[in-house]
């Protein structure tokens, strides 16, 4: 579903991604983990072209994302992105936050978009919040609205960049539960996370990055019990 080939990227003379290669089959869930500054956010943002790349290629379900001939707005409808800080539209109700893109980009009717939005919000435990404004919601509720908003476009891939890092501890679970449910439904996902227990439980593969490079790729059982690299051993010692 996702192929990342020989990707390099610099900000000025700072080389932040070096020779990145990996593939994610359909319905696989990959956790991108590693120390702060490793390049995790930059890498996940290149997958939907929120960041450009200097060399290489990223292909999502047959579409070369960074090819000049690609209609990136169309390609992005296939890639749901959930940010650390929710990024909801503050002046729109919950329902309008979820329906705006299906109506504007996918040209759905208002009735059709609202029907689907209500189903998604209800399935995420937000059935009583359709008319609320984001500022009146908890962080965990806002993040679940952000997930509903991404899902409303019927993406084939979901990308999460530290979706629980801005949440109070008691709200982490409700957001992880929502992501876990998507995993069980077969969604292809890339999740940047510091929630090691969660990564271990739901991911097919761990991609461990440090200093702009992929240091190690392994299934969670192997990665968390017996990683090959010293860099990963040191990281796990510090975080577990
Ligand atoms: P991570 O998400 O793993 O913490 P990032 O991808 O955010 O790492 O950052 C990787 C490196 O790139 C860091 O050194 C960061 O300072 C740098 N960086 C990220 N975004 C920019 C930017 N827009 N301009 C310049 N440097 C950046
Ligand atoms: Mg980051």
From TrEMBL:
Top-level lineage group: Bacteria
Keywords, comma-separated and alphabetical: ATP-binding, Nucleotide-binding, Transport
Decide whether keyword Transport is in the record: yes
GO-annotated molecular function:
ABC-type amino acid transporter activity; ATP binding; ATP hydrolysis activity
Q: Which InterPro entries match?
A: AAA+_ATPase (IPR003593), ABC_ATPase_HisP-typ (IPR030679), ABC_transporter-like_ATP-bd (IPR003439), ABC_transporter-like_CS (IPR017871), MetN_ABC_transporter-like (IPR050086), P-loop_NTPase (IPR027417)
PANTHER family for this protein = AMINO ACID IMPORT ATP-BINDING PROTEIN, PHOSPHONATES IMPORT ATP-BINDING PROTEIN PHNC
**Which family, according to the similarity comment?**
Belongs to the ABC transporter superfamily.
Protein name per Swiss-Prot or TrEMBL: Amino acid ABC transporter ATP-binding protein (PAAT family)
Supply the source organism for this entry.
Answer: Kurthia zopfii
Gene behind this chain?
A: artM_1
């Amino acid at each position: 579903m996702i192929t990342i080939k020989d990707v390099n990227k610099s900000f000025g003379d700072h080389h932040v991604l070096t020779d990145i290669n990996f593939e994610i089959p359909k319905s696989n869930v990959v956790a991108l983990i590693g120390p702060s500054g490793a390049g995790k956010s930059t890498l996940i943002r290149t997958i939907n072209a929120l960041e450009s790349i200097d060399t290489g290629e990223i292909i999502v379900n047959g579409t070369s994302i960074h090819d000049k001939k690609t209609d990136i707005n169309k390609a992005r409808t296939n890639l749901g992105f959930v940010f650390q800080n929710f990024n909801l539209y503050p002046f729109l109700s919950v329902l309008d936050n979820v329906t705006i893109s299906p109506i504007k980009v996918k040209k759905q009717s208002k009735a059709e978009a609202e029907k689907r939005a209500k189903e998604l919000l209800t399935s995420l435990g937000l059935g009583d919040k359709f008319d609320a404004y984001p500022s009146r919601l908890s962080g965990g509720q806002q993040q679940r609205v952000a997930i509903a908003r991404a899902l409303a476009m019927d993406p084939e891939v979901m990308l999460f960049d530290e979706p629980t890092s801005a949440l109070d501890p008691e709200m982490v679970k409700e957001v992880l539960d929502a992501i876990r449910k998507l995993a069980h439904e077969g969604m292809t996902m890339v999740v940047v996370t510091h929630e090691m227990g969660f990564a271990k439980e739901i991911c097919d593969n761990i991609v461990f990055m440090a200093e702009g490079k992929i240091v190690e790729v392994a299934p969670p059982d192997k990665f968390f019990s017996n990683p090959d690299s010293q860099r990963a051993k040191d990281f796990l010692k510090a975080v577990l």
